[in-house]
Amino acid sequence: MYVGRFVVVGPGIGGYRVSSRSFPNRRVADRDGTLTVAPTPDAPPTDNPYVSYNCLRTVDRADGPVAVVGNGSHVDPVTEKLGLGYPARDALALSLLALDFEKDDYDTPRVAGVVGAETATVATVRRDGLVVREVDEPTLVATYEADDPEPFALDADDAAGAARELYDHEFEHAVCAAGVTVGAGGEGVDSAFVNE
């Protein structure tokens, strides 16, 4: 099944995977702790605004670090609002409403999640509405087919394992993936990615 790009978030762990038929020549790169999706050097030129973006950012808050994962430019304003002290629900809702679904040929939804050590929130904005949900188990939301949050059996317990598990999942057309863990008690944030 092809579900497009997707996020999985749960308390303490999360990840993001690019699945693409149209733009498979992409990879994740680490830019000083921010994970960015960008074209590979051999990718054909494109002016598509949805091909390059930060897919994973972190922010230290008074109540502990959090990580944001998502499929587009909305990752940045979500992260900024969290840094200003907004609750995860508000940061996600305000940013997704402001940017709305992608204005491409498919009205592609935007998907995102916020991972804290003890909490997680998943969100999507589609043509037909906005969904923001606090979750207590790993939960997936994708751009196609699975575009309403649903439980996801994530077995990994570290960032590298989460990235690998999402990349290897049976959903079609895997391109690259990122994983993140947020530890309790000041253990911090760990991130990893898979490009193949």
Walk me through the topology.
Blueprint: E1 6-10, E2 13-19, E3 26-31, E4 34-39, E5 53-59, E6 66-70, H1 75-83, H2 88-99, E7 110-115, E8 120-126, E9 129-135, E10 139-142, E11 150-151, H3 159-168, E12 174-183, E13 188-195
Antiparallel strand pairs: 1-2, 1-10, 2-12, 3-4, 4-5, 5-6, 6-7, 7-8, 8-9, 10-11, 12-13
Can you tell me about this structure?
The protein is of the alpha+beta class and 196 residues long. The protein has one domain: Inosine monophosphate cyclohydrolase-like (Glutamine Phosphoribosylpyrophosphate, subunit 1, domain 1). The protein has helices at 75-83, 88-99, 159-168, and strands at 6-10, 13-19, 26-31, 34-39, 53-59, 66-70, 110-115, 120-126, 129-135, 139-142, 150-151, 174-183, 188-195. Strands 3-4-5-6-7-8-9 form a seven-stranded antiparallel β-sheet, covered by helices on one side. A six-stranded antiparallel β-sheet has the order 11-10-1-2-12-13. The mean pLDDT is 96. This is IMP cyclohydrolase. Keywords: Hydrolase, Purine biosynthesis.
Instruction: Please give the largest β-sheet.
Output: 7 strands, antiparallel
The name of the CATH architecture is 4-Layer Sandwich
Strand tally: 13
- Spatial ordering of strands, largest sheet: 3-4-5-6-7-8-9
CATH topology: Glutamine Phosphoribosylpyrophosphate, subunit 1, domain 1
The N- and C-terminal alpha carbons lie at a distance of 20 Å
Mean pLDDT: 96
Helix content range: 10-25%
Low-confidence stretches: none
